[in-house]
Amino acid sequence: MRQFGSQSDGELLQAFVADRDQQAFAELTERHAGLAIGVARRILGNTHDAEDVAQQAFVTLATKAETLIGAENIAPWLHKAVWNIAMRTREKRDIRMRHERQAAVDATAAATEAIAERQLREIIDGELAELPEKYRLPLILHYLEGYSERDVAQRLESPLGTISSRLNRAREMLRSRLARRGIAVAATFSLTELFAREAVADSWKTATIEAAFAATASGAAAGTAAIVTASSTSAAVKTKSIAIGAALLLLATTGAILVSRDRGPASGPETPSLDVRVPAQLAPAPEQAGKAASGESRWNGPMDTPQHNASVANAWNSAEANSTTKENNMKNTTPLSSAVIAMSIALSSPSISTAETTDLISRFNPRQGTVAGDWTKSDGTLRVAAAKGSRCVLTEVRGDYDLLVEFTRPEGEDAVGLILPIGSKQCVLELSGWRGEAHGLARIDELPSRAPENPTSVRPGNLENGERHRVEVQVRVKGDAARVAARLDGDSLFDFTGAQSRFEPHRFYTLPSRESLGLVAASTAVVFHKVELKAESTSMPLVDELATIEFEGRRFVTELADAVTVEPFADRQALHVVGGEPAYVFLPNVELQDGTIEVDIASNTFSGIGFRGGDGGKKFEMIYFRPQNSGTDKHDKTVQYVAKGRADGAWRYLRENFPGKYEAGADMRVNQWFHARLEIAGATVRVFVDDAPKPVLVVDEMLYGTSRGTVGLWGWNSYFANFQFTPAD
């Protein structure tokens, strides 16, 4: 197994940014070159192209290093960056080669197996890039970079048991994702062999470091030139296997890739292809590729023409008459295990044509509709400040609807999105998703908008900053089928028909219900000038519509109803905040300024007590506990103060800028009850654990000052019992 160096990736990045430390960047290259070249080679199929792509990724790392300050490990970022560059490179190469030759029809069994294996590697890399960070990071470190579970646990500051659990969960998530793509997994083929680690030549490392420094010194043009020069002299990369341990995933029937699909009449051997093609009857008509017809009507043009609607009427009527069910539609699956329904849904809708147009901005109440982020109304516009995952609810929609949105992105490069209810499902239309890589729906068959297999993906997906853009969307639902069409600035983006089961909500942009229609801004500021809706049925959500949980005679509320339960644990009834993402439950009708809060806690990760909260649970002061640090070399980081909702209140910011001021040690054990008591007075909080006569932590400069607000409990995989609070006044 490999061993981590004494410095973390974050420390090396800091040294590189602050001092242009070449040795620091060389160490990062040494650590992660094998990962980068391996990912690229699995997609591109040859070493030379893979070296070039990996080199581009490291140059990008050098030019964007400042934006990555704070990351403890760059492996997940690098994996995704290489995957993106390699996919773009392959697309360009395929387009070029398509005009030069046709694919061979006859192939030997060995060639077929090699093609299938390469496709599998590519698919797994793509699925790995989509796993949640908490599962993706340990999996990459352990299986792709070759570190032991113990080293991974040490680097990530997590218990060994937690890392083992997350690796198991990551394997199961990959297994499930592969199964949904029609790839059967069983017990006779090891991914260890698919992801053999790359041994990287010293000459390639030297050339890459030189290219990276050229890029940061002279701009992107110089960096590109350096890459071209370096790639001509880079040495070949040799593959070697390393002992990774138990197999990650095992494929059925001696390594064969099993793809469930409608193969039609038997016609001899067939190469198992993992590519997806949209049936011709669902491909956009030629006239759909151009500009929208001029005129005042909002919905004229490529999405709704008499010719198009007439051409699909028979298929639609036939589907209705046969009462086609979801199960019948899905019986014969494509490699993505969701058959495209061979029918279209007419976009003309009598109920929509007679519906009134609703101005959703004028009806929007920021206090009522904000889910995350800073949303404000000004001069007839709706504005959101740049923040990760900002989203709001505009209304609730049932049935068919037409949506028109006009917006300006003043600056930034990440996505502007529309959260769309689609029957019983929900999807996000991402514009400029993945920092300008693609427009499209996220997710179709769990594919992101940038995935080439996503039938709604439009690449590239650039938006001009400072310009006013106009997006039009039509949603039609009938039975289990749905049709979504969209265009941007008059150009058709897509016209997609499929089973409702193919649409999936975006895990980063959840709303209170599947009927919620909303807006998204991903780490970028946006000004929405117009949001107009024509729909069969709408309703405004209730103010502060949150899930309610009854516990110990009190009524708590939370945004994440599925993340909180009441159940017994270790001889007492407890409020359980389950795994996944952190959840906050609070008492909405309680306002406490000074006083005492007490609770019993048992946890194996992070758990906290929130107070002086506001903004519907979006901001609050908090003391949180890390029992996994107690008794270890991180004992002095067991208890910490943070201010949720403030950038200068994040734990990392406070630790780096005020070492030792906002955190301290305490004695507690994983998954064993301990008693926590907070004494709050003015801008000071005193933290007591169990029966200790003295506080384990005293914070005398809380960031929200002496405000008044709600109290609550925060964490994941944590249990709470005997919750009490006593106001001083």
Summarize this, please?
By secondary structure, the chain is an alpha+beta fold.
Structure characterization notes:
The protein is α+β, with helices and mostly antiparallel strands and 729 residues long. It folds into three domains: 9-99 and 107-252, no CATH class; 286-539, Exo-inulinase, domain 1 (Jelly Rolls, Sandwich), CATH 2.60.120; 547-727, Jelly Rolls (Sandwich), CATH 2.60.120.560. The strands form four sheets. Strands 3, 4, 5, 6, 7, 8, 9, 10, 11, 12, 13, 14 and 15 form a 13-stranded antiparallel beta sheet that branches. Strands 18, 19, 20, 21, 22, 23, 24, 25, 26, 27 and 28 form an eleven-stranded antiparallel beta sheet that branches. A two-stranded antiparallel sheet has the order 1-2. Helix 2 (22-44) crosses helix 3. The longest helix has 24 residues, at 75-98. Residues 102-115, 186-193 and 218-346 have low confidence and may be disordered.
How is the topology of this model organized?
Layout (H helix, E strand, L loop, with lengths): L8 H11 L2 H23 L2 H17 L11 H24 L10 H22 L2 H12 L4 H7 L4 H21 L10 H4 L3 E2 L2 H17 L1 H14 L4 E2 L12 H4 L50 H16 L4 H5 L19 H4 L4 E2 H4 L2 H4 E3 L2 E4 L2 E4 L5 E19 L7 E7 L2 E8 H4 L1 E5 L25 E11 L2 E8 L2 E9 L16 E6 L4 E14 L7 E5 L2 E5 L5 E6 L2 E6 L5 E10 L2 E20 L4 E7 L13 E6 L6 H7 L5 E2 L9 E8 L2 E6 L7 E3 L9 E19 L2
Helix pairs in contact: 1-2, 2-3, 2-4, 2-10, 3-4, 3-10, 3-11, 6-8, 7-8, 10-11
